[in-house]
Amino acid sequence: MFGTVRGAFTGAVDSEGAFFRANGGTLFFDEIAEIPTRIQAKLLTVIENGTYRKVGSLDEQKANARFIFATNADITSLISQKLFLEDLFYRINTIT
Fold first, then answer.
1. Cα gap 82→33, rounded to integer Å
2. Kindly report the CA angle at 38 between 64 and 57, in degrees rounded to 5?
3. For the segment 1-13, what is each residue's pLDDT rounded down to a tens digit?
């Protein structure tokens, strides 16, 4: 999603990532409930601030895309089990 900078980890090469490639378009996240909470936190930052960082970079990039999220999971249950971030849920839960 975020892209990488060459040398960020063993075998890392420069890559743009989904946010960069979706510039001016739409990113569809299917089964959002299956994303690990540490990545959910980073996604929440992108939604709130409109910026992200490539893995291994200190430079912020501007995200310019519309996000659509879908899942069949019971998000309320996942929130109570601490498997889904409540803040992210409230940011993305606009149409049910």
1. 11
2. 55
3. 888 888 888 888 8
